[in-house]
Amino acid sequence: GENVEQHPSTLSVQEGDSAVIKCTYSDSASNYFPWYKQELGKGPQLIIDIRSNVGEKKDQRIAVTLNKTAKHFSLHITETQPEDSAVYFCAALGGYGNKLVFGAGTILRVKS
Amino acid sequence: DTAVSQTPKYLVTQMGNDKSIKCEQNLGHDTMYWYKQDSKKFLKIMFSYNNKELIINETVPNRFSPKSPDKAHLNLHINSLELGDSAVYFCASSPPSGIETQYFGPGTRLLVL
Predict the structure, then answer these.
(1) Chain B residues within 8 A of A98 when measuring between CB atoms
(2) pLDDT at residue B81, as a whole number
(3) Residue B51's pLDDT is what?
(4) A78 falls in which pLDDT band (50, 70, 90)?
(5) Cα(A43)–Cα(A93) distance, integer angstroms
(6) pLDDT number for residue B2
(7) What is d(CA A4, CA B56) in angstroms, rounded to the nearest whole number?
(8) Contacts of residue B41 in chain A, CB cutoff 8 Å?
């Protein structure tokens, strides 16, 4: 089955700096890779996703890149703000297409 | 106009008790899920239902029994609660177009004493 690894587990950045979170997956048949943001006491919220036929996708300050050959994908947040502080999860939709497998999460702290 | 709602938000109970968590979505989605998030924030799927039919059943103890009375509701019943069941349980749903985009509820924080 699919296995997703996520790094780093914690990340502290200064307000205005960029933050990068990386994930690798094991199943080469996986074709959908969402990123979720979870704020304290809330459920995960989808912030951006990418499909395997696309190498990069951008939405304002957030971008995701996908390298299918290396089986890794990354989340890039530019001009970080204190409200970006949260736990971020990557996920991959397994080759059989029946379930999302999540990474272990990254705690992002943006210091003002 | 809450999209995916869960009740209760907090649940504190004694070991050995039986409890239920309810989930409702008003998005018109066909597929609903239960996830468990442990103390280390690890998020893992437990069950998935599509149009009231079970389609995913991970290796979850049979003390956990999901029930879907209609496609807008997916409840989770837990028998003989154990200390290790303490976690946050999230309900989610996804649209008929595919299971990719999943929308999560606010979670139910279960503490077993």
Answers:
(1) 48, 55-56, 99
(2) 97
(3) 84
(4) very high
(5) 19
(6) 66
(7) 19
(8) 38, 87, 104-105
Residues of A in contact with B44 (CB under 8 A): 102
Which pLDDT band holds residue A2 (cuts at 50, 70, 90)?
confident
Task: Tell me the residues of A at the B interface, defined by beta carbons under 8 Å apart.
Answer: 32, 34, 36, 38, 41-46, 49, 87, 89, 93, 97-100, 102, 104-105
Among B43, B47, B99, most A C-beta atoms within 10 A, so best to mutate, is: B43
Question: Quick check: A79 and A109 in contact, CB under 8 A?
Answer: no
